[in-house]
Amino acid sequence: MYKVIIYTTPTCAFCKQVKAFYQENGIEYEEKDVAVDTAAAEEMVDISHQMGVPVSVIGEGDDKQVVIGFDRTKLSEILDIK
User: Fold this and answer.
1) How far apart are the first and last CA of the chain?
2) What are the E-state strand segments in the chain?
3) What is the CATH number of the domain that holds 10?
C-alpha cells in the first residue's frame, strides 16, 4: 500500500477529480487543504516548487513521487492501477 498525500483547495476542480479517481480505485489518501493550512502550503511548495494544486505525493522518503495536477496516466502507472 502506498502512502498518498494530496494538497488541495476547496474550489479546485482538478482536486475534486483526483480525489474521485482515488476513491473509485480504493486508494486511501490524506488531504491537506492549503487554503487554510499555511504549514501545508509551505510544505507543498517545498516539495513541488510551485503553488498550483492539486499536488499528489505518493510514497515516502527517497521513493516518493510527485504528481502535479490530475495526470490519470501517471497516477495509474505509479499506483499500479489497470
Assistant:
1) 15
2) 4-8, 30-33, 55-58, 65-68
3) 3.40.30.10
Query: Residue 16: which domain range?
Result: 4-79
DSSP H/E element including 6: strand 4-8
| CA 1 – CA 45 distance, rounded (Å) | 25
Per-residue pLDDT of 45-74, as tens digits, reads: 999 999 999 999 999 888 899 999 999 999
pLDDT in tens, 21-47: 999 999 999 999 999 999 999 999 999
Cell of 69: 495536477
- 8 and 15 Cβ atoms separated by less than 8 Å: yes
